[in-house]
């Protein structure tokens, strides 16, 4: 392992230990050329996501291979039908998610979300709503965006959104639009900037998918 990878691995270990929501002792860390692999196990799906967010906070991380297993303690395990019913109920109460737009299927603690919504923030809100439910070990979000594709000004709208964003150097980002699919290319300095660029693309009505080919330099 190169010295840079050794330092990156230790920085990730330290950041995981600093994260109060998980037990870092059960999480394994490897690093190679800026790619961090997480292994081991945690007691809940939110802890798995917290570990991933912690890694992205570390300078020098270019990618993550997420191999952490969720091992629910016995008292937190739930039957699939119970998880499904609770997920349906919490989605019905969520004001961001259109009524009856999302369908839920649960198999061995894995929740699959399907359906159609108009905006990406609604799609993400549905996932956030069920993420914290007890018994959930993972989420597969297959909700699709049903918004009609806007005219050819989609690219200009995204470029304008990037130009307004304080964290993004817009002239370093390439934007290609094919129907409702936006492909992003170019270089960013860190993960926060990458997330900001993706967010700008998703904020434009008519965008149904975003292909992220950005590189962290």
Biggest β-sheet strands, sense, barrel: 4 strands, mixed
Query: What is the string of helix and strand elements?
Result: HEEHEEHEEHEEHEEHE
Mean pLDDT: 86
Radius of gyration: 19 Å
How many β strands by DSSP?
11
Structural class based on helices, strands and sheet pairing: alpha/beta
Number of helices: 6
Notes on the protein architecture:
The chain has 217 residues and is an alpha/beta fold. Helix content is 35%, strand content 29%. The protein contains 6 helices and 11 strands. The strands form 3 sheets. Strands 1, 2, 3 and 4 form a 4-stranded mixed β-sheet that branches. Strands 5, 6, 7 and 8 form a 4-stranded mixed β-sheet that branches. Strand 1 and strand 2 (35-42) form a beta hairpin. The model has no long low-confidence stretch (mean pLDDT 86).
């Amino acid at each position: 392992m190169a010295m840079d990878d050794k330092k990156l691995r230790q920085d990730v270990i330290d950041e995981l230990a600093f994260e109060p929501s998980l037990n870092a002792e059960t999480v394994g860390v490897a690093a190679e050329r800026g790619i961090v692999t997480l292994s081991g196990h945690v007691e809940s799906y939110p802890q798995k996501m917290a570990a991933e967010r912690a890694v992205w906070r570390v300078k020098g991380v270019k990618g993550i291979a997420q191999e952490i297993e969720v091992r629910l303690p016995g008292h937190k395990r739930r039957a699939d039908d119970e998880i499904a019913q609770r997920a349906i109920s919490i989605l019905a109460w969520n004001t961001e998610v259109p009524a009856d737009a999302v369908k839920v299927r649960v198999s061995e603690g894995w929740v699959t979300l399907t359906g159609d919504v108009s905006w990406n923030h609604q799609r993400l809100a549905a996932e956030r709503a069920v993420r914290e439910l007890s018994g959930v070990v993972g989420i597969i979000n297959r909700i699709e965006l049903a918004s009609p594709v806007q005219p050819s000004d989609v690219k200009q709208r995204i470029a304008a959104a990037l130009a307004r964003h304080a964290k993004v150097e817009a002239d370093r980002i390439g934007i290609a639009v094919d129907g409702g699919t936006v492909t992003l290319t170019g270089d960013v300095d860190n993960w926060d900037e990458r997330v900001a660029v993706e967010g700008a693309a998703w904020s434009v009505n008519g965008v149904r998918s975003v292909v992220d080919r950005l590189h962290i330099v």
